[in-house]
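Write out this protein's structure.
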Amino acid sequence: MRTAFLFPGQGAQIVGMGRQIAESFAVAADIFEKANDIVGFNLSKICFEGPAEELDTTTISQPAIFVTSAAILEIFRTNSPTKELKPDITAGLSLGEYTALYAAGVLTFEDALVLVQKRGQAMQAAADATEGSMVSIIGLDREKVDQLCAEASNGEILVAANFNCPGQIVVSGSKGACRRAEALAEKYGAIKAVRLAVAGAFHTRLMSSAADTLERALSNCQIKEPSDIKIIANINAEYYQSADKIANGLIKQLTCPILWQKCMERLLADGVEVFYEIGPGKVLTGLMRRIDRKTRMVNISDLQAIRDLQGT
């Protein structure tokens, strides 16, 4: 039976995440302690206690989600009955791709966390410099979303940036263009348009400076060649074939659309039967229900889910 491990991206964070698992499993507590040393501040305290305004910032939420996902993964790897379970494929939504690369063994924990921290800082800096936004458009196909972007852009940047599942496409661009997209969405038949609580226009060329910063950070990082476990790339729904392709994919990811629906459809076509969402929240589980309701999804987001899996 082919299995895939899926890892969530920014937006999955919630105050208290990881606290119970760190209190219950020494291996999880060790991951949080190691992370505190690497990032240079008490990241675990913010995960466990908040405040939400701090946890929700781009610079904090990205390392926080990565570390919480890695802590849950460590329990998976070291405790019965899941320690024998190995994924055939890993995938992660945007930020989650770093966790997928770590889970597949091509990035060390330290390298992945350093990259994630620098990525969050670079994206925040680019957002501060460009004043962008993102809007989730519910109920339109790509053709209609492209038409909406063409009208709402009015000479500014506005593009489809996240193809999450059928009927959910996120557009990204300047704040003015995003406001116009919200106002025009109903005209094109959208069920609704929801402004996302993000710092800027992610996955557009407004993140070019962040991509340049990430490229420099990647040059100081060792990426192993992919081997037994496949990793699928957000930007093209193809499996990474080399370390160079991984680095290029992570850089392009900041300025290119995220093709999550296409990635999941590829995994289903390639025979994956069971998907484990590992990390805070249930975002990916919800998206998969819209992509293919018959798919077997196992959500491992908290202590109770771990205990249910272990039968304790």
